[in-house]
């Protein structure tokens, strides 16, 4: 197994923490991982993306231009990374932030209403875990239990009480993408 993905959106949407959590979860399962963040100088509102590779084998290079999956959280990221998804790959995108979804017919696209569902959980910050749950339902790269273990490393200790809520968000994402498959 070797999965290469890009996660892209605005700063403040949890792009980098989503990628870091996935990478840590891969490490929990003794997989080879790469997490390569890229972001502007802004704390919130600037563009942010990260490349994540999770593999059973050594990763030859962290620099990649084509991805198995793109997780897209805003329109500028869709415009920039849609063409970087390999034929047969996936785009998961946040339903409320994308006005012009991909029209490619050689990939699968999944419209995930993560913002709406995060608001139903009374915590907008769970949006990224909802999208991650959808991704993991399509690609069993790591187990949800490993994500929850990874959150203990990614989240500051004062936020560990939110891990059960993040678990609900992961399950909601899996449920949402289950409607497509």
Number of domains: 1
What CATH architecture do you see?
A: 3-Layer(aba) Sandwich
Shape designation:
globular
Q: Structural class of the helix and strand makeup? A: alpha/beta
Unreliable stretches (pLDDT < 50, length at least 5) are none
CATH class descriptor? Alpha Beta
CA radius of gyration: 15 Å
Task: Report on this structure.
The protein is α/β, with parallel strands linked by helices and 181 residues long. The chain has one domain (2-178): 3-Layer(aba) Sandwich (Pyruvate-ferredoxin Oxidoreductase, domain 3), CATH 3.40.920.10. The chain is built from six helices and six strands, in the order E-H-E-E-E-H-E-E-H-H-H-H. The longest helix is centred in the last third of the chain and has 16 residues, at 163-178. It is globular and about 40 Å long. The two termini are 21 Å apart. The mean pLDDT is 91.
């Amino acid at each position: 197994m070797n999965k290469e993905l890009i996660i892209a959106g605005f700063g403040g949407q949890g792009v980098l923490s989503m990628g870091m959590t996935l990478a840590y979860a891969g490490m929990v399962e003794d997989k080879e991982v790469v997490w390569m963040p890229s972001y502007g100088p802004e704390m919130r509102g600037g563009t942010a993306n990260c490349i994540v590779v999770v593999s059973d084998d050594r990763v030859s290079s962290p620099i990649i231009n084509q991805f198995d999956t793109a997780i897209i959280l805003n329109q500028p990221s869709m415009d920039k990374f849609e063409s970087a998804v390999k034929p047969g790959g996936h785009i998961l995108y946040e339903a409320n932030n994308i006005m012009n979804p991909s029209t490619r017919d050689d990939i699968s696209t999944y419209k995930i209403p993560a913002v709406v569902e995060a608001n139903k959980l009374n915590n907008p910050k769970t949006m990224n875990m909802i999208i991650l749950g959808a991704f993991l339902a399509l690609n069993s790269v790591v187990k949800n239990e490993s994500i929850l273990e990874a959150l203990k490393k990614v989240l500051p200790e004062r936020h560990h009480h939110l891990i059960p809520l993040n678990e609900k968000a992961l399950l909601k994402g899996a449920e949402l993408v289950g409607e497509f498959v």
